[in-house]
Amino acid sequence: MYVVMYAFRVKPNQEDSFIEAWKGLTSLIYKHEGSLGSRLHKKDDLKYLAYAQWPNQSTFDKAGANLPEEANRYREIMKSACEKVEVLEKLEVVEDLLK
């Protein structure tokens, strides 16, 4: 399994828009690109962390070409709702004891 970790700094009063767009985009990536899903965590008032799980790095690297046009709308909402988006880490899972 392969994991990508993200950090989002959301603009004030944009949290709901960001979360809804994140959920919409994540659902499309799961449905169309073969991801194993993602979790979103709130660190503080305007900072969120997420990690997306993939079956392997190759599936992650190839992702993007199969998304419907609707994905662009979610990306734009997220982009306008955030002050900063960054990829923190890309990691290969060695052992998985999460249940």
Write up this protein.
The chain is an alpha+beta fold and 99 residues long. The chain has one domain: Alpha-Beta Plaits (2-Layer Sandwich), CATH 3.30.70. It contains three helices and four strands. β2 and β3 form a beta hairpin.
Brief write-up:
The chain is α+β, with helices and mostly antiparallel strands. It has one domain: Alpha-Beta Plaits, CATH 3.30.70.100. The protein has helices spanning 15-33, 57-62, 70-81, and strands spanning 2-10, 37-44, 47-54, 82-92.
Strand order of the largest sheet: 2-3-1-4
What's the number of helices? 3
| CATH level 1 name | Alpha Beta
Radius of gyration: 14 Å
CATH architecture verdict: 2-Layer Sandwich
GO molecular function: monooxygenase activity
Protein name: Antibiotic biosynthesis monooxygenase
Keywords: Monooxygenase, Oxidoreductase
InterPro entries: ABM_dom, Dimeric_a/b-barrel
Features:
single chain, 99 residues, alpha+beta, Alpha-Beta Plaits, four-stranded antiparallel sheet, 3 helices, 4 strands, 36% strand, globular, monooxygenase activity, oxidoreductase
Please write out the topology.
Elements: E1 2-10, H1 15-33, E2 37-44, E3 47-54, H2 57-62, H3 70-81, E4 82-92
Antiparallel strand pairs: 1-3, 1-4, 2-3
